[in-house]
Specification:
Helix content is 41%, strand content 28%. The longest helix is centred in the middle third of the chain and has 54 residues. It folds into five domains: 161 residues, Nuclear Transport Factor 2, Chain: A; 107 residues, Beta-Lactamase, CATH 3.30.450.20; 71 residues, Signal transduction histidine kinase, dimerisation/phosphotransfer (DHp) domain (Helix Hairpins, Orthogonal Bundle); 171 residues, Heat Shock Protein 90 (2-Layer Sandwich), CATH 3.30.565; 129 residues, Response regulator (Rossmann fold, 3-Layer(aba) Sandwich), CATH 3.40.50.2300. The strands form five sheets. Strands 14, 15, 16, 17, 18, 19 and 20 form a seven-stranded mixed beta sheet that branches. Strands 10-9-8-13-12-11 form a six-stranded antiparallel beta sheet, with helices on both faces. By secondary structure, the protein is α+β, with helices and mostly antiparallel strands. Helix 7 packs antiparallel against helix 8.
């Protein structure tokens, strides 16, 4: 029974060791220093990894930086833990044993399996039991069969024998180097030609010759520098060891370690131990693990690519017929007088918008997960997006008799922001507030400017508060996770995918903002988003105000060439444009579009509406051909892309081929009218 300060204390060192191993294997980041609680400040650590000795705890933690980075997606588990305990005296206990370590990729696929041995020395430091020494190894077959291995090592450390004895357990070659004279004393292993016997001077030419003979070419320079006795003392300043791994000419790997053996009165190292051991099996396992990780990464990338292709095709294939549904619905609305039929039309339109919202959410989340989501910032006036979103949901709020309040208190209103993503954030928050608030309730959107010390920026906070059903405290921690809802559609009778809040969180993070939520069941919720925005300078503001005033333009007599292969979409678009006052000619593919521009006189058309995916020649290629026409009046005609593809790279590609703007299907004809005014006013 160990004693601490004269008081008998029963310690379960087997349990402590188990907890230590769990902490050691469970660390996912370098910032996790829970293992430090176990270690004495001067604890020594020996292992069979890339480093063998560590000067302090921080050095020990930092030494695993490479491994921590590699194992981001690896979950470690250990099984068959066997522990033996040996109480030396009331101040010292050493524990030794074995354990099987498994590394699971994404917690499913086993890619690492290690049979490990360990010895841990516990001692009393400052009145507390601490780890004084750890030796962790992946022994070879001989070591596994040698039951005395951990016990012998523990006694060696406990009895404070020379480093030579500790190293002898695992190293095939050990020598003592006198750094002042350059003499070498062979302690263990075969003689190296030219370095024979006791106190034979280490000659640089001989060292260079041996390095060139034994070490593979890519490692020769670093190996010569490592073994150079003239620089060892300098390199050991502030360190407890030096290590080096390299490949030999026969294809095997070697790990070399240099450890200080003696210091002079000034604390300078004057002699060292050099130890070499075979590192081939560890390197082989390391390379196998790296290859397994590489293959898993390739599989994951292929899966993501397949998902992206599927979403791309799904988006296009759904949006194309959706354009016809939404378009004909809008055309039908103007002809209806029967209240019942008007109601039916409104339900079709609302359901279409819901379906479109679900598609957009799925696509947005896919972009976030792939890391391809980027900000596309532009000029905006604070409050305009809020007004726009509230207008979109005003009918729903009115139908439920919900009071919708907007409060605005902002001094710097002109900002640079990704208006599309900010609109998506507010749309999710406001639509949820209305969705989960019962009839007669209230929804308030309160936007204000907060103090901010970053020059040229403004901090805008928006609170969306409702008097709805609220959320339980237990659900809040998982609110922003994918596909999570406190009540599913079947139970709540309220449709939803569980994607909206995850998208909001990711968009807010992308904009360097923060989001907080307060909620109570039966009383409602408050979502608070706080985002910094760059302030638009006066020139930028005035330029945008002036351009917005130019949008009042008459479309009567303006001619549009419409390139659209889908007959229904062509009919809808032609009808809407004709009602705006345009004269429209439709063609079915890119070749016909280019031919029409080539063969008609310049200025026959004021603008081209160009579908992207068409047979024979797509919209990108057609635009490229038109931009290369010799007549400037034809080459510079405004071209607006129309596409069922909603990915950002599709828009970027459109602008790369010098299209003037981009409209996503299903077409919002009110937005299209604004785009047409903007383009034709220039």
């Amino acid at each position: 029974m160990p004693f601490v300060c004269g008081v008998s204390v029963m310690m379960d060192f087997k349990l402590i060791t188990k907890n230590l191993l769990e902490t050691y294997l469970g660390s996912d980041t370098l910032s996790e220093v829970a293992i430090q609680d176990f270690l004495a400040s001067n604890a020594s650590v020996i292992g069979t990894g890339k480093q063998e000795f560590f000067k302090d705890i921080e050095h020990f933690l930092n030494s695993f930086k490479f491994d921590v980075e590699k194992r981001k997606n690896i979950h470690f588990e250990f099984k068959d833990l066997e522990i033996e305990e040996n109480i030396v005296d009331d101040q010292c206990v050493f524990v030794y044993g074995s354990v099987k370590i498994y590394g699971l990729y994404d917690k499913e696929v086993t890619i690492i399996h290690l049979d490990s041995r360990f010895t841990i020395i516990y001692g009393v430091r400052d009145g507390k039991w601490k780890v004084l020494h750890i030796h962790h190894s992946i022994p070879d077959k001989e070591q596994l069969e040698d039951e005395e291995f951990p016990i012998t090592l523990g006694k060696q450390v406990q009895q404070a024998r020379h480093e030579v004895e500790a190293l002898s357990a695992g190293y095939s070659y050990i020598c003592l180097i006198n750094l002042e004279t350059g003499d070498v004393e062979l302690i263990k292993g075969n003689n190296i030609p030219g370095l024979n016997g006791r106190y034979t001077q280490m000659d640089h030419n001989i060292l260079l010759e041996q390095v060139n003979r034994l070490i593979a070419k890519p490692f020769r320079k670093s190996s010569f520098e490592f073994y150079d006795s003239k620089t060892i003392a300098k390199r050991l300043e502030g360190k407890n060891s030096l290590f080096h791994t390299c490949e030999r000419t026969d294809g095997t790997w070697i790990l070399s370690m240099i450890v200080p053996q003696k210091y002079d009165e000034n604390g300078r190292v004057v002699s060292v131990l050099l130890a070499n051991r075979d590192f081939t099996e560890e390197k082989k396992r390391e390379l196998e693990q790296e290859e397994a990780l590489r293959q898993e990464k390739i599989k994951a990338e292929k899966a993501n690519e397949a998902k992206s292709i599927f979403l791309f095709n799904m988006s296009h294939d759904i949006r194309t017929p959706m354009n016809a549904i939404v378009g004909y619905s809008q055309l039908m609305k103007k002809e209806l007088t029967n209240p019942k039929l008007i109601h039916y039309q409104e339900m079709i339109e609302q359901s279409s918008q819901l379906l479109l919202s679900i598609i957009n959410n799925v696509l947005d989340m896919a972009r976030v997960e792939s890391g391809k989501m980027e900000l596309d910032e532009n000029y905006e006036v604070v409050g305009n997006i809020t007004q726009l979103v509230c207008s979109a949901f005003a009918a729903e709020a009115s139908r439920k008799n919900i009071e919708l309040n907007i409060i605005m208190n902002v001094e710097h209103k002109h900002i640079i922001v990704d208006s599309t993503k900010l609109q998506e954030i507010l749309s999710n928050l406001i639509s949820n507030a209305i969705k989960y608030t019962s009839a007669g309730g209230k929804v308030t959107i309160d936007t204000k400017e907060l103090p901010y010390d970053k020059e040229g920026y403004v901090l805008i906070q928006t609170k969306v508060t409702d008097t709805g059903i609220g959320m339980s405290e237990e659900f809040l921690p998982s609110l922003f996770e994918l596909f999570t809802r406190e009540r599913n559609t079947t139970l709540s009778k309220i449709p939803g995918t569980g994607l909206g809040m995850a998208i909001v969180k990711n968009f807010v993070d992308l904009m360097n903002g923060s989001i907080e939520v307060e909620s109570e069941l039966g009383k409602g919720s408050t979502f608070t988003i706080t985002i910094p925005h760059k302030i638009a300078n006066k020139d930028y503001t005035n330029r945008n105000i002036e351009s917005s005033n130019e949008f009042d333009i008459n479309f009567v007599g303006k001619r549009i060439l419409l390139a659209e292969d889908n007959e229904l979409n062509a009919e809808i678009t032609t009808t809407i444009l004709s009602e705006m006052g345009f004269e429209v000619k439709a063609v079915e593919d890119g070749i016909l579009c280019v031919n029409e521009i080539q063969h008609q006189p310049a200025n026959t058309y004021d603008l081209i509406l160009m579908d992207i995916q068409m047979p024979n020649m797509d919209g990108y290629k057609a635009t490229h051909c038109i931009r290369r026409l010799l007549q400037p009046e034809k080459a510079n005609i405004p071209i607006i892309a129309m596409s069922a593809n909603a990915f950002e790279e599709d828009k970027k590609k459109a602008f790369d081929v010098k299209m003037n703007d981009y409209i996503t299907k299903p077409i919002d004809f009110q937005k299209m009218e604004e785009v047409l005014k903007h383009i034709l006013s220039k």
